[in-house]
Design brief:
The chain is of the alpha/beta class. Helix content is 32%, strand content 19%. It is built from 17 helices and 23 strands. Strands 1, 2, 3, 4, 5, 6, 7, 8 and 19 form a nine-stranded mixed β-sheet that branches. Strands 9-18-10-11-14 form a five-stranded parallel β-sheet, with helices on one face. Helix 10 runs antiparallel to helix 11 and helix 15 packs parallel to helix 17. The longest helix is centred in the last third of the chain and has 22 residues. The protein binds NADP nicotinamide-adenine-dinucleotide phosphate. The site of NADP nicotinamide-adenine-dinucleotide phosphate (NAP) has 27 residues, from helix 5.
């Protein structure tokens, strides 16, 4: 027996007559209810398609659901860390320049409620596999709880930074204290009062958590392998007038962001470091440092990411700042990144990060030459020194971008596993489609732009919507990229990285080499949001000629 459920789909019924979740057919399955998944659901609804969103967590939010560690907040300014939906823009006000995790999560909850998305989302539902059936041209998606959902379009949006990486330190099971992974922070919080805390890692996450827990804990010991170029965020509370200004200017904010290299409403500086005297350069950098956020890199000089000499001027400026802020010269020197370019690793935004190292209860341990060798009952051993602690916080990053795809066990034509197709690095067309995986459209997939994520997601979702509309209008049953287009995109993505200073950083997660054994390959397109949108548009204008279109 079959019954029609609320999404207009067919579900089988169990013997008691109640609809079973066992087998359902919908137009689209979306994986993930973070920014990407919610944006995808909105797009499917605009197309009039039925869709189910499968979400492993108990609620919406994605990264903001999981990353609840103290100090977590966005590095994008609130007015551009959002959806461009008019009803949301009209009704939502941000309180700060860089919203906290709880505010970002509240925003996504607001969107889900306001747009009545929850009925189409299955929470606590982890996808275990997604398999393409060539005969019926459908995808079969299976979940941990035994759901089987068949769909025409499969849209994974599981998040580029959703699989936390925990190094395999021997002895962790012996540790008698508490330990936490920032990407899986307990909802009830952690009491640091009076505790001796170890923080492993000094990436964007650690940079946010360290200053906060330094206030309440007895002692914080930071284990640093590679120092970062931490830029001051200079957060502030928005005034009513600023909020009114944001609401009035959403159109121009989005217009600019869609053209900006990194998806922000910023302007090119219109100059390089070579255009000005060294004194003028310092003044301009000082301006960027005071304004805060990524303005320091994107609005001071246009050659920072492409000219090593210019980059070194900026890197030296930051090193001088570190030396002027951190009072202990030895600690300051350890905090100074050396041997790689600014942006060779993604620069974190700090909220009094360097200042925190002036506190008596904060200590820095350099593990670049002598690594952490074991975790003991009492703490962490580096070389022959044991650091006794009560709590260990692992802020050790993510198996970025491709990690979440591997976890989904996606199999395309002839049962080929996506993980196997990407053994030497991801292969996609525009970061959206994959050869041999018909009707799979990725949101937040590898080789999409490295930029402010909501802006990238919005463009990709819009493109997918247009592609599906085209398919339905023209009677196209399946589309997948040609092998040639995938190879051209891979070469394009690689050539751009090679032309910049970005490949100079050690263990960069955006190149995949923060994870032992993961192939080093660019996980992002660094050609800018504007150029990416143009490339996407050209494919659409060309009738999707870089895709194989099979008639219904
Ligand atoms: P991350 O940048 O990859 O940093 C991980 C840290 O752990 C690094 O310092 C790394 O050292 C260290 N580490 C890893 N394995 C280690 C080992 N075996 N021994 C010692 N140290 C080890 O990860 P993340 O801080 O979570 O940030 C990742 C990205 O998430 C950011 O770049 C950002 O894009 C995003 N993020 C954004 C925000 C925001 O927007 N507000 C906040 C947090 C994160 P090495 O550098 O030597 O590898």
């Amino acid at each position: 027996m079959t019954v029609t459920n609320g999404t207009g789909t067919q579900a089988s019924a169990n013997s008691a007559g109640a609809p079973s979740r066992a087998e359902v057919t919908v137009d689209t399955v979306v994986v993930g209810a973070g920014f990407g998944g919610l944006r995808a659901l909105h797009e499917m609804r605009e197309l009039g398609l039925s869709a189910i969103v499968l979400e492993a967590a108990g609620d919406v939010g994605g990264t903001w659901f999981w990353n609840r560690y103290p100090g977590a907040r966005t590095d994008s300014e609130s007015w551009v860390y959002a959806f461009p939906f008019p009803e949301i823009q009209d009704e939502w006000d941000w309180t700060e320049r860089f919203p906290t995790q709880s505010e970002a999560l509240a925003y996504l909850n607001f969107v889900a409620d306001r747009l009545e998305m929850r009925p189409d989302i299955r929470f606590n539902t982890r996808v275990t596999s997604a398999e393409y059936d060539e005969q019926d041209t459908v995808w079969t998606v299976r979940t941990e709880s035994g759901d089987i959902i068949r769909c025409t379009y499969f849209v994974p949006a599981a998040g580029p930074l959703s699989v936390p990486y925990q190094p395999d330190f021997p002895g962790l099971d012996d540790f008698r204290g508490e330990w936490y992974l920032t990407g899986r922070w307990p909802h009830e919080g952690v009491d640091f009062a009076g505790k001796r805390v170890a923080v492993v890692g000094t990436g964007a996450t650690a940079v946010q958590i360290i200053p906060i827990i330094a206030h309440t804990s007895a002692e914080v010991t930071v284990f640093q392998r590679t120092p970062n170029f931490v830029l001051p965020a200079r957060n502030y509370t928005l005034t009513d007038e600023e909020r009114r200004g944001i609401r009035a200017n959403y159109d121009s904010i989005w217009k600019k962001s869609r053209q900006h290299f990194f998806g922000f409403p910023m302007d090119l500086a219109g100059r390089t470091i070579h255009d000005v005297t060294p004194e003028e350069a310092q003044k301009i950098l000082e301006w960027g440092w005071e304004i805060g956020g990524f303005h320091f890199i994107f609005e001071t000089f246009d050659d920072i990411l492409v000219d090593s000499k210019s980059n070194e001027v900026v890197a030296n400026f930051v090193r001088d700042k570190i030396r002027s802020i951190v009072k202990d010269p030895e600690t300051a020197e350890l905090l100074c990144p050396k041997g790689y370019s600014i942006a060779g690793k993604r620069p974190p935004l700090g909220h009094f990060y360097y200042e925190t190292f002036n506190r008596d209860n904060v200590h820095l341990v350099d593990v670049s030459d002598t690594p952490i060798n074991t975790i003991t009952e009492k703490g962490i051993t580096v070389g022959d020194h044991e650091y006794e602690v009560d709590i260990i916080v692992f802020a050790t990053g993510f198996d970025a971008v491709t990690g979440s795809y591997r976890g989904l066990d996606i199999r395309g034509r002839d049962g080929v596993r996506l993980a196997d197709a990407w053994t030497h690095g991801p292969r996609t067309q525009l970061g959206i489609g994959v050869e041999g995986f018909p009707n799979m459209f990725m949101i937040g997939g590898p080789q999409t732009p490295f930029a402010n994520i909501p802006v990238v997601i919005d463009g990709v979702a819009e493109w997918i919507g247009d592609a599906i509309r085209f398919m339905r209008d023209k009677g196209v049953a399946t589309m997948e990229p040609t092998a040639e287009s995938v190879e051209v995109w891979r070469q394009t993505v690689s050539a751009i990285v090679d032309a910049t200073v970005l490949s100079e950083g050690p263990h960069s997660w955006f190149l995949g080499d923060n994870i032992p054994g993961k192939p080093r390959a660019p996980l992002f397109y660094f050609g800018g949001v504007g150029a990416f949108r143009e490339a996407c548009q050209q494919v659409a204008i060309g009738g999707y000629d870089s895709f194989i279109l099979n008639p219904a």
